[in-house]
């Protein structure tokens, strides 16, 4: 092939290629697209009800309803990389608006939202306890970019223009009316460590729903020294704004620390306005109680004498903070002591007051003189006649040799001597 | 603000015909499939949306429901022209940006779902939409219809404005359409409490609750079993908690009498419980009875208090004491009998007394004779007493034990002095001396 022919071949090929290029160009021809840009809307995938005192997931759906209004097909233009209806790099932030709620989730990046696409974004919302029921509007703020215009400057270059934009869309939410218990007062009635008593919990319904057939439940928090005899009290219909008192009988463990306030939680179970049996949020409060009733045996050690039955006085003082009713003291004696009269009635002993018990104790004749410890305890009742037994109270007993036991023989001896003297004197007088 | 933000360079100018040729041939190969799938649709087509509920849409009154509704587009593009120029962006059978507003219509439901977006629904596409709500508690059984108010757009027309440059201007048609959703409300036995009462529901014994239930529902229950479930089954032990009713028609009234043992230390008051159970519906299928909250009313019962008089007696003496028993409870103590218990020192000679029926607020005084042997003077001894009686169901009941004190007289004056042996010796010595000197004085006179 000579050079001329070769150039002709190249020319033919070039011409062929250009013709092919013309054939292909309609498909490559890029439309200029005109639209109003993205049109973002927000809807909720679930219900929009929020319950006070709870945390809820609010699943939002972000949709782009943008539409193309015109598309022009210029020959020999390039395909645009972006569509003007696409919201690019969108970030969704949920704002409380006028709703008394806390939004726990940070703004979320949801990326590009093309026209017709739906992108989910979930937000965690907390409705604090006590928020008033009603309809509120939260706000979903979406920030994004879009491309309103692209200019093809040459046959190879397209220059894109981007615009930052944002839209704030209302998200209606409903704070559901509930019966909300609020603790007005907690009163301990006769509660002390190691005893039983009553806890009167006064509640106010600060919610917006009537709690029909409502019951108040008491839940000690964690491992607690407070044990309710029953944890539910029926209170009937609980109208908003009304106050009611539920009285629980509870027992307090022996080793409970009276200097602490122990937590308990209360909640309502009721039939709501839709006829469902529901439970209110838990409301925490604290319970105080008094010190355990304690007794001390006071005074000097009781004195006993070997081989003799002695009546001893033991004075008991109530060093607790609650009265002990129908108290009776019992002394427990072991060898070398015995007792046939070991119980004494003390009656009611008020805090700080004392009562004296008399016991009859016999010490064995071979008892070594020294100080012994004798156990005693006090049984008492509370106002509701529940019986309790105190801790063991130690009574000191000193065994001493009896000096008064020689008094009678000495006296008899003296009388006998006096009689003998009198008789001798009488004989002398008669002899004279 | 619009600003140039990025610049894209696409393509490279050919430097030589060989290179251009290769590139164009490659481009031709690449473009071929695109050419094959580009269409122009007949603009007379339009979407054909429908709604089908997944599963079995049957609910009881009061149910919270979650319906999954499939939105379908049955439209078909029946004719289309293979495009050589325009892209296939504009399919008139596609429902664009579908927006769904659930509406209750006349159905006995409360819709809780907000309007929801369903996006674009193309031909043959199925897009599920979730609808949440509650069926009214008093809904009558039967088939009901609620609606999905669907709005969308589609390409209604694409007039070509071709003045040299091909231009497509889609004309969108806005469509609002109500799509019916049928569901069925099933009849249900719905007991409601129309009366409550109790018999002998007092702590420490067994009693009965009387609960009258009315069928406020629209279904007839057969082989109905009602069961009482206390909220606290430690405090209340159910002896007989269930009741069978062969047929329970709408409007029927039955009274159930569960027998319950009440814990001894339970204070009087109202305590929560629920009535539940099962029944056989008209198809013979067992259904659950909706839970009905009730209250268990507990009375105080017969609760005695005791006061004592004449509780002082002489050592080694006898005394008639009086104990007065008062019923401070709210129930009658039938055939009450009181008893005292002493010990080895305080010995009752008569230890029981019949009190008879003691009504609430009534007081009865019983007298007992007690004696004290080897008692310590001045000491208070314990005297226990309790009351035995029968409740209104005839069960034998025993009251709490009450304690009182019996005082032993402290000897006073001469008796107290003579009880001391030292005093006795001194006294004997004084008498002996007095006798001796008296005798001596007489003998001197003689």
CATH topology name of the largest domain in chain B = Immunoglobulin-like
Q: Largest contact between protein chains?
A: A-B, 106 and 105 residues
Oligomer: heterodimer
**How many DSSP helices of chain B?**
3
Largest beta-sheet details of chain B: 6 strands, mixed
In the CATH hierarchy, the third-tier topology of the largest domain in chain A is known as Immunoglobulin-like
Q: Biggest β-sheet of chain A, characterized?
A: 6 strands, mixed
Could you give the count of β-strands of chain A? 30
Could you name the ranges of chain B where pLDDT drops below 50 across 5 or more consecutive residues? 1-13, 30-38
How many domains make up the coordinates of chain B?
Answer: 3
Assigned CATH architecture of the largest domain in chain A: Sandwich
Radius of gyration of chain A: 49 Å
Report strand % of chain B.
Answer: over 45%
CATH superfamily of the largest domain in chain B: Immunoglobulins
Query: How helix-rich are the residues of chain A, as a percent range?
Result: 10-25%
Helix % of chain B is 10-25%
Mean pLDDT of chain A: 85
Terminal Cα span of chain B: 156 Å
Our count of domains of chain A comes out at 4
| Average pLDDT level of chain B | 84
In short:
The complex is a heterodimer of chains A (432) and B (446). Chain A has 432 residues and is mainly beta.
Structural write-up:
The complex is a heterodimer of chains A (432) and B (446). Chain A is mostly beta strands and 432 residues long. Chain A has four domains: 3-175, Sandwich (Immunoglobulin-like); 181-287, Immunoglobulins (Immunoglobulin-like, Sandwich), CATH 2.60.40.10; 295-401, Immunoglobulin-like, CATH 2.60.40; 408-432. Chain A is built from two helices and 30 strands. Chain A has helices at residues 3-28, 407-431, and strands at residues 31-35, 40-44, 49-50, 54-64, 68-73, 87-95, 102-103, 108-113, 118-127, 134-152, 157-175, 181-189, 196-205, 211-220, 226-228, 232-238, 243-252, 262-271, 277-279, 283-287, 295-298, 302-304, 309-318, 324-332, 337-341, 343-349, 354-363, 371-381, 387-389, 393-399. In chain A, the strands form seven sheets. In chain A, strands 22, 24, 26, 28, 29 and 30 form a six-stranded mixed sheet that branches. A five-stranded mixed sheet of chain A has the order 3-11-10-6-8, with no helix packed on it. Chain B has 446 residues and is mainly β. Chain B has three domains: 36-160 and 168-185, Immunoglobulin-like (Sandwich); 191-298, Immunoglobulins (Immunoglobulin-like); 304-413, Sandwich (Immunoglobulin-like). Chain B is built from three helices and 33 strands. Chain B has helices spanning 17-37, 413-418, 421-445, and strands at residues 2-9, 39-41, 49-53, 58-59, 64-73, 80-82, 95-103, 109-111, 116-121, 126-135, 142-157, 167-168, 171-185, 191-199, 206-215, 221-230, 236-240, 242-248, 253-256, 259-262, 269-280, 286-288, 292-298, 304-309, 312-313, 318-327, 333-341, 346-348, 352-358, 363-372, 380-390, 396-398, 402-408. The longest helix of chain B is centred in the C-terminal third of the chain and has 25 residues, at 421-445. The termini of chain B are far apart.
